[in-house]
Every structure is written in structure tokens, then in C-alpha cells.
Amino acid sequence: MPAASATRLIANGRVWTGAAPRPGIELESTAIAEQGGRIVAVAGIGELRRRYPAAAELDAGGRLVTPGLIDCHTHIVHAGNRAAEIERRLAGESYESIARAGGGIVATVRATRAATVQQLIDGALPRVDALLAEGVTTLEVKSGYGLELASELRMLQAARDIGRLRALTVATTYLGAHALPPERSGDSEGYIEQLCRELIPAVAASHLADAFDAYCERMAFSAAQVARAFEAARTHELPVKLHADQLSNMHAAALAARHGALSADHLEYTDAEGVAALAAAGTVAVLLPGAFHFLRERQRPPVELLRRAGVPMAVATDCNPGTSPMASILTAMNFAALEFGLSTAECLRGATAAAARALGLLESTGTIEPGKWCDLAIWNVAEPAELVQGIGMRPLHLRLWHGRPDR
Ligand code: DI6
Ligand code: FE
Question: How many whole angstroms separate alpha carbon 386 and alpha carbon 122?
């Protein structure tokens, strides 16, 4: 029998399926049957042994089993480093003033434009591997440090290649409106025009991007400019996402909702109207406490409003060289709890089901349910809350991606 069709039972785990939308974390002593990389049944081990008598068994040893974790917002593919910026920030300069003086995103653009696809892959893999070692099975990767067609395509190609080099699902996002390319200084309208007419159509035709993203901020693009880009993206069948209301209230959450965005990300300055718009549109709120921490922000996202409105909250690393140099989804969950007040259950949902939804992938991953990919993390912890409480504890026992254990 070909290996792909052999059945495997994951037995003897304490399983959090993440499927029931209940506030707590309920564990079940249930077993999981996998075939061809997919979950085919979740039931008691006795029943599964009767149904699949020839199945091999993987003994979870009484450990916690969760869906594989999902990091749904990263800029993990990039070149160069911005270590000098922490020195400047510690000396009192702000992120915005460093960016206006030619540092910030544009500094990474210079390094990234000079890098080959292979160099981008080689630079990203150690960060990707750090996430895999924390049970990540799905990773979103944005472009946005090329800002001209060839370099953006190289970034997206590097992201796609990482998905082939590692046992991992990679979702790619064309972040075409991240910053104004330095050669277009003073002409953001002209760049948006080119983005809509040339860049979005070309990237869509390459099939290297699964979604489109933009940065709506005083130092980046206005709401009106983002709206034009979103229209072009949707014309080319790219779902949209938005860096929204991170440093000021641009009414960007409402803008994202109006365009049916999969997610609105950051949201520190989003107001009640923005939250209501997200709720009505079914747009996921992606919280990025790493950027909040590294920028030493004070303004917290409206978590209580989001919770009351029933907006799904995802948690991600925002792994990037400037505002969130962090390749740890568990640390992002810890910060989401301690800085933003998420419960441990909200943190776990935030890095599983809600994150899958933010990528439009909830049909295929994010919970342990029949029909989905068998993407699992098996943990050496006594309680699920330990995953949120600790930093640097390396709690992962074993990761399975599409039914394949790492060892
Ligand atoms: N995500 C981003 O894209 C920007 N901030 C954020 O949280 C800028 C990242 C950078 O400075 O390179
Ligand atoms: Fe970001």
C-alpha cells in the first residue's frame, strides 16, 4: 500500500480540538485518525481501532495535542538588519523619525533589492525553523521590501520555495503598498497609479501571491490610496488584508471591513465604529503585540470591544527587522495575554482557528476536525496555559504537518 494511503492513529493524547467556539480550553481523551495527510476521524481509540484495524499508531504518551500553530502575519523574508535602529531608539529617536530620515522600511528595501532568491531563503530559514520548533505548521509571508516588480516577485518566490523546503504550509501576501519606493519620493499618487495598473496585475498573473496587503498610516498610504489599491486587487481576485490603525486612527479598520478584508491587523488606535465594522464584515482582528512591545507603544488595541462584538482575534509575530524582530509565536501569545489582556484560551485560538480564518484557510486547517489537514502539535506541558505563560521554554514534543511527524 502506498504510504500516503496508510492510516495512522494518534493515540493517548489529551486533545484540544479548538473546534468548539467555547471560551475555555476543554481537553478530550480522544484519538485522531489520519489518512493521506488528512484527518478522517476524531473518536475514542477503541472505536478507531475497530474501524481501522491495520492502522499504525503514534503514541502521544498522555501529552497535550493541539492543532498546529499558525503565524498569520510575518515579514520573515527580508535581507539585511536594522540593529543600528535599536541604538538610535534607545537614544530617544522615534520609529517614525528614523523612517523619515531614510531608515526604517526603506533601509530593508535597499538590502532586499540587492539579494537573490537564494539569499532571501538562506536569511529567512533560521527564523522559519525557530517557528517550526514551536509547533507552527502554517506561516504567512509578506513581500513589501522590494517595492518594484522584480524584487517583489523574488520575495514571493522565496516564500513559496520555503514552503517546499520545509514541512509547512506557506500563505503568501503581496504587500505592494508598504512604503513609497525611494525613487518615487514625493509621488505617492503616481506610485499608487502604477500599483493598480501594472504591479497588481503582474503579481496576480504570476500566481505567487495568495492575498494583497497595504500599510495605511501617516508615514505610508492614505485611506483613499489604499481603497484604490484594494479595488485593483479584488479585480484581480486577490483577497485583501490591511495594516490598520497601528500608530494613529486612520479609520483603517472600517476601510478594511468595507472591502471585505480577510483581516485588519494591529488596530491599536481603532475606535468603536471600526470594531463594529469589523464585526459586521466578519473580518478577523490580527493582534501584533511584538510590534507594540518593540515600539514601546502605550495605546492598546480595543480588546474588550472586539471581544464583546464577537470579532475573532488572531495573534501573530509580525516577524520583521524593524518593529518586531521576533520569531516566536509562543512569545507573541505571552505578550497578547500580558500586554493586551487576552485569556489563555483566546491566545490559543488566536494562533490556531482565528489565524486560519485570517488567511482564508479555516476550511483546511486551524482545528482538529475530520476533513482538515492533519496539522498537529504535541506538547510536553501539563496544562495548556503553560504554552502562554512561559518564554523560551521549548515545550514542543512533536509536530505533524499533513500527517507527517518531523521525526
Ligand atoms: N508591520 C510593518 O509592515 C511595519 N510595521 C509593522 O508592524 C514596518 C516594518 C518595518 O519597519 O520594517
Ligand atoms: Fe506587519
Answer: 32
Probe ligand 1: pick from 320, 324, 335, max atoms within 8 Å of CB?
A: 320
Pocket of ligand 1 (CB under 6 A): 75, 104-105, 108, 178, 215, 243, 246, 288, 291, 318, 320-324
Single-letter code of the amino acid located at 318:
D
317 CA from centroid of ligand 2 (Å): 9
Write a three-state SS string for 136-147.
EEEEEEECCCCC
Query: In the chain, which residues have pLDDT < 50?
Result: 1-4
Helix, strand, coil percent content, the chain, rounded in steps of 5: 40, 20, 40
Taking only the tens place, the pLDDT of each residue in 310-321 is: 999 999 999 999
The closest residue, in CA terms, to atom 1 on ligand 1 is: 318
pLDDT at residue 5 in the model: 57
Q: How far is the CA of 267 from the centre of ligand 2 (A)?
A: 12
Strand ordering across the sheet containing 313-315? 69-71, 136-142, 169-177, 211-216, 240-244, 263-266, 284-287, 313-315
Residue that is written with C-alpha cell 499508531 in the block = 57
